[in-house]
Amino acid sequence: MIFKAALKLVIVFAVLVALAVNLATVSGFIVSQMGPILARPGLSLKEKHWLLQGDYAVYMEFIERNTPERARILFPPREREYRPFDWLWRNNYFLCPREIIYRGDAPLTAFPSIDYVLIYKDFPDFKVRGKKIMLDDTLGLYQIEREPPDNPARNR
Amino acid sequence: MIWIIFQLGCMFWVGWNITLFFKDGRIGLLERAALAYALGAGVVTFAGFLLGAAGVTLNPSSLGAAYLGISLVLFIVNRKRLGMAETGHPRSRRHPVALVLFIILALVIVFSGIINMYWPAHYPDSIGSWLAKGKAIAATGSLSAVRFGSHPQYPLHVPLSTALMFLHSEAMAKIPFTLNYICLIIIFFTYLRRTLSAVSALLFTLLMATLPYLFEQSYRACADLTCALYYVSGTLYLCLFFREGKKSWLILSGLLCGLSVWTKSEGWFLTGADVIVLFVYLLRKKRVGLLIYFILPTLILGGSWSVYSSVMLGYSNRFFGNFKDSSEGIIQCRLSWWKLESVLRYIWQKFLEKEAWGGLGPLFLIVLLLCWKSLKKFGYLLAIIMLNFIILVFVFYSIPKDLQKMMHQTIKREYVHFFPLLVFYIALSVGPVLDAVLNISRKS
Questions:
Q1: What residues in B contact A9, CB-CB < 8 Å?
Q2: Contact of B395 with B406, CB cutoff 8 Å
Q3: Which residue from A12, A11, A22, A3 is spatially nearest to B438, judged by alpha carbons?
Q4: CB within 8 A of B98, min separation 6: which ones?
Q5: Where are the beta strands (DSSP E) in B120-240?
Q6: Quick one: pLDDT band at residue B103, thresholds 50, 70, 90?
Q7: pLDDT at position A144
Q8: Which segment of B104-113, B155-164, B320-329, B365-374 scores lowest on mean pLDDT?
Q9: From CA B266, how far away is CA B94, in angstroms rounded?
Q10: Most buried of A129, B212, B235, B359 (most Cβ within 10 A)?
């Protein structure tokens, strides 16, 4: 009888300890997550992206603002030296439904209808004919200038 | 905002009408509301998939017309049952401890909601696998936009449910995750309330809701919590079917497990565990024919997408190929003991990880050891848990390369549906003991 009662108490105690451990851990999560929220409660979505992604969010907003939704944009190769543009899915998340093509994924001749080329560090590493739109010294876009198909000068 | 309310209202209305079909089972108002959202979100996203597959552009007007159609059909079929929703458990005097537990639980939900809604998506797995697809589907109106995210063969429940929110604004895109968390908590609580006092039911629900990694998932915007909602709820109602034998519970369970397959590919394996146990149960009861009620929704909800994604979009799931290769290896007695041992050791380490699962791993082992009568009493549930464990081992054993890296990245996520089942087993085993120790009757 005593053994049974002791057993019950042990089980109930174990449940309460487990609950206490859970609550302590979750409280830690809540405190760490709520701190930044309470410090800046009224941020806009754009500002939150800036806070989380840093300059990358500024770049993405610049590209989004300066390109139409149907644009095809050439990005540098997905390599470490071109961080933060090496993460495919994040680029897609911010710029979809724009089509992003990465230099190096296929020869450029495979993409005859590129509308924009990203300017970042030493990229593009080839000559581009187009209008330059710059955000700052490091980042910008080339808007590709297309020749009209029936250009008489070209025919000559 | 009106669009969001309209969307959620449609999901709720569709789900509510579906719950009215389960007339021989007793479903309270709170439970019905949670089921209404969970089922409605699943069915509405599936309808979105069917529309997209038929070549219709997914935009507010096409979706609105589809909702109107579904709602009208369900309304006509259900018009005689609309007033039949029960009010739940009879009101009784509330225990002060229950009130304290309720307040803590409410705070946990509120904080989870605030964190989820404040931050936009930023976790890599959430953006890559789910939200990039959701945003792209909303922007293009086409299912082929799944190419904008990683693993385009993954089921579409989460991308589509977020796409419906992205149609309004990105700031609201994560609402479904908070609602899923709330639904899981309500369904878990209302189930336990069938057999336990409010204090015990709340205590074990709190134990489940505060599983650290599960709580974290409530604002990480991944599909794991959504899959857990459907699979855990489905298993709960399957246990209710084992207890009461009512066909309604079996169909409801099949529908929920089917929606878990519509959420994550792993749902196939998890539902497979339930099918095996259900088959044994029905075989013993000589009612094997009932299995079709469980399997059919899974095949329709999960199978349609699998076929569409591989045939129409050309994305096949490598997961099944790896699984097949490992099965063949084991059948041909080519078991790699070294690999199995490293998988088991890693799973064991993570099972006891306090930062992810609090004190639940050791608690489950204690309960398993001390409440030996429960082994037989809740044998079917235990069998599902054990099969889940075997599946977990097998899934990791099937990984062809980079085993350590893959396990490190995914094991916690694979546990998200598993630990609530452990809490459920603990609650059923220990709940009556707790009620006896605290001297509380079930009605309080």
A1: 437
A2: no
A3: A12
A4: B197, B198, B199, B202, B444
A5: none
A6: very high
A7: 83
A8: B320-329
A9: 40
A10: B235
Which tokens in the block code for residue B23? Answer: 């007339």
DSSP B401: S
Task: Describe chain B by its helix, strand, coil percentages, rounded to 5.
Answer: 75, 0, 25
Chain A / chain B CB contacts < 8 angstroms? 130
Q: Report which residue type is found at B426.
A: I
Other Cβ atoms closer than 10 A to B42: 29
| B68: amino acid identity, one letter | L
Residue A80 DSSP symbol: G
Separation of alpha carbons B194 and B199, rounded Å: 12
Task: State residue B319 phi and psi, 5-degree precision.
Answer: -50, -45
**Residue among A39, A52, A26, A37 nearest B114 (CA):** A37
Q: Are B195 and B221 in contact (CB under 8 A)?
A: no
CA distance, residue B358 to nearest chain A CA (Å): 5
Q: What angle do CA B228, B216, B426 make, to 5 degrees?
A: 55
- B204 CB neighbour count, 10 Å cutoff: 25
Q: A6 — contact with chain B (CB < 8 Å)? A: no
Q: How large is the ipTM? A: 0.88
The model carries a pTM of: 0.92
Whether A38 has its CB under 8 Å from any CB of chain B: the answer is: no
Q: Are B368 and A16 in contact (CB under 8 A)?
A: no
Tokens for B82, please give them.
């609309």
Give pLDDT, residue A156. Answer: 39
Burial class (CB in 10 A: 0-12, 13-18, 19+), B303: middle
Average pLDDT for B339-347: 87
How many Cβ atoms sit within 10 Å of the Cβ of residue B372? 11
Q: What is the token pair recorded at B358?
A: 């609090």
The C-alpha of B215 sits at a distance from chain A's nearest C-alpha, in angstroms, of: 7
Sign of CA dihedral B359, B364, B365, B369: positive
Q: pLDDT by residue (tens digit) across A90-115?
A: 999 999 889 998 887 666 666 678 88
Identify the CA nearest to A27 among candidates B426, B412, B206.
Answer: B206
Look at A96 and B148 and tell me if their CB atoms are within 8 Å.
Answer: yes
